[in-house]
Amino acid sequence: MTVVEAGIRIQAPRERIFDISQDYAIRKRWDPFSRATGLLDDARWAALGVRAFVRARNGFQMTFKYVQYRRPERAAIVMIDGPWFFEKFAGTWIFEPAADGGTLVRFRYSFVARPVSLRSPLEELIRRVLQRNTEARLPALKRYCESQCAQAPDG
Length: 155
Prior knowledge:
The protein is α+β, with helices and mostly antiparallel strands and 155 residues long. The chain has a single domain, classed as Alpha-D-Glucose-1,6-Bisphosphate, Chain A, domain 4. The chain is built from 3 helices and 7 strands. A 7-stranded antiparallel β-sheet has the order 1-7-6-5-4-3-2, covered by helices on one side. The longest helix has 33 residues, at 119-151. It is globular.
């Protein structure tokens, strides 16, 4: 299994960051990876067992299910159906409080590529692309969250 992980510190409350990250109505406002996202089966919000989909800007689409949903700590998914080159795919977004009041956010993905005969070179290629995409998504989430929290009234 190949793992990709990246993290960033965001100067905003983790509850707010978690909520923004899991709100499919606003995902396109901050996420440079996603062309379209949505919840399935008439779900109104993300939660344990809920199915959702993401269509990447490159055209690939994945349907997944939430296998963990612990606001504001973490959300984890597993692929139900996805691009031909993934045998397995899982992702976890982790939100940890920082000592200065900010939040440490980590995106962690693991996957197994197929076909088996091409697994090693394919996983290296996918790892590089996924790492680049992950490292672009985190600063985008940071910019969006920090700008939204700066606009929020004091209270």
